[in-house]
From TrEMBL:
Domain SpoVT-AbrB residue range list: 5-53, 82-125
Stored PANTHER family: TRANSCRIPTIONAL REGULATOR MRAZ
Name the UniProt record assigns to this protein: Transcriptional regulator MraZ
Gene: mraZ
Keyword list, A-Z: Cell cycle, Cell division, Cytoplasm, DNA-binding, Repeat, Transcription, Transcription regulation
Length: 148
């Protein structure tokens, strides 16, 4: 569904414009309702889900037994922080200030289409992550079968 890398500007009010190439997809996939939440696995990154996709993720995460600290931590970062956003007439969404601050997203960011969701990276975190290369020790069994 979503793929590609786009440099994004965030205005002084914390808004970013959905790239033109994604506007129709976002409108069709979720009636212009996105959910913004933390990426619990990578610092400097927020996740943006189409609303219907989010509901599935939310329900799976909430179904985890909360007696385990790791489950509670995941529930807090994903479900507890989730915010529904809708584009305005200029196709801009307002990112929650607390999420922007925690992820270090300022004026410049990078939006990645990752299939079922978007990842919104701070420019610095994206640059650091993209510069990392995979070594032989990083290759999993599943990756070994890929024909790249």
């Amino acid at each position: 569904m979503f793929q590609g890398e786009t440099a994004i500007s965030v205005d002084d009010k914390g808004r970013l414009a959905i790239p033109t190439t994604y506007r129709e997809l976002v409108a069709g996939a979720c009636a212009n309702r996105l959910v913004v939440t933390y990426n619990p696995f990578e610092h400097g990154c927020l996740w943006l889900f189409p609303h219907a996709e989010w509901e599935q993720v939310r329900d799976q995460v909430n179904a985890l037994p909360s007696v385990k600290a790791a489950h509670r931590n995941l529930q807090m970062k994903l479900v507890g922080a989730a915010a529904v956003v809708e584009p305005d007439s200029a196709a801009r969404i307002l990112l929650p200030a607390s999420q922007r601050s925690t992820a270090g997203i300022e004026k410049k960011a990078v939006l990645l289409g990752m299939g079922n969701k978007f990842e919104l990276w701070s420019e610095q975190a994206h640059l650091a992550k993209i510069r990392q290369t995979l070594g032989e020790d990083d290759i999993t069994h599943e990756m070994a079968d890929l024909r790249l």
